[in-house]
Amino acid sequence: MSTNHERNLKKVLSLTDTVGIAFGQIIGSGILILTGLAIGFTGKGAILAFLIAGCLTLLANLPLAQLSSAIPTTGASYRYSSRLLGPKFGMLWLIGLVISKVTIALFALSFAQYLQGLFPSVPVQTGALGMLTVFYVINLVGVKIAAVAEKWLVAIKIIAIATLAIWGLPRVDFSSYLSVNALLPNGIGGMAQALGILAYAAAGAICVAELGGEMKNPGRDIPLTIVLSTIGSTVFYVLVAIVAAGVLPVADVAGKPLTLVARAILPSPVFYFFIVGGALFGLATTLNAVFAWITKGLIIGCQDGWLPNSWGAVNKRFGTPHYLLTFFYCLGVATILSGISLAEIARIGFSLLLMINLLPVFACALLPRKFPEQYAAAPFRMKPSVLYTVVCSSLIVMTGQIYYLLAGLPNTLLAAVFGVVVAAVAYVNIMGGRENLKTVDDVSFQLGGSTK
Fold this sequence. Notes:
mainly alpha
């Protein structure tokens, strides 16, 4: 039986809607902020780093694609962790999600910094708060409106990024990529650092699994969206990296935003189109996509008794969880006003997100035994031997990415992250003893739609 909150979610999202949301989540801050950092770690090898990172991300996402095809549901990652591993693991996932979403402020602040390049008089904090408010309101009045906005913004963003790649490719010195020293100037260690920082770049496709309860055909569309958007975004990343590292000297672009290369190769009108359509719209679609999926797991957590049930209420008119959206909006506002370092926010947020995503990946190994009928009927199904191999490989890959993300943090912040993990474990063990919590045995999945 579905719960009251879930019944109010509207099944309106098509494959094109979810692909647009996934592209909006993937292509944005990763390519705009991380390209220069990757070049700094491994020079022209950034193109290999993006390619390898995309392949590793697709591997890491396959278990969730399998779960979502067999049992599409609202709040997928929380629900898979809770129902397959146990309620306490589900709450651990939720706590990690909430803390990791300080990155909402990162997207808004990055947008404001690019905006300031066009309008220097606009303060960064003011631009970030305005950006955050616009997409909070858009998602507050309906997920379909947010998806339509996402598709248009993503289309413009892709054109702008493609313009940079197409305009710059004829000016690339491809012979400079033939040297091992050019591809690995800092050795394997430099490449590993680049892969660590790029862990986030192509990982956003899994956000669509959270929308299973609002999709018309989730069993088919979620795996398709994950594969198509991950491969497509990786192609874009590699093309842009070739231009970013191959036109100007590596020393000039290492650690720098794409604006430096864009200004060097694009005529002024095209340059401004890239800044607006690529940079500003790219960051806007990332933030919009986060608002679209971020609340879904908490809705189920509220229904399960970990949080007050009323907090997960869904507005009957718009079909959106207004209280939870408002909470994340306030979290973003507080982080923007705090003045915390963007680099440290990014490392902490992305590493915590990877940590909690270890749980649903591990849970996928239990799918054939606990839900054999759904597993057998899934439109996308890996054989058990393949599934177990993929799950193990994904866990190894994600653990390595977490290590390299945290490696650059000072000891004080590492201690803070450790303290948060310890506090989260203590909380779920205390709250997990309450009698009003629902358990794996007395709660069934709310299927997001037909799996046929």
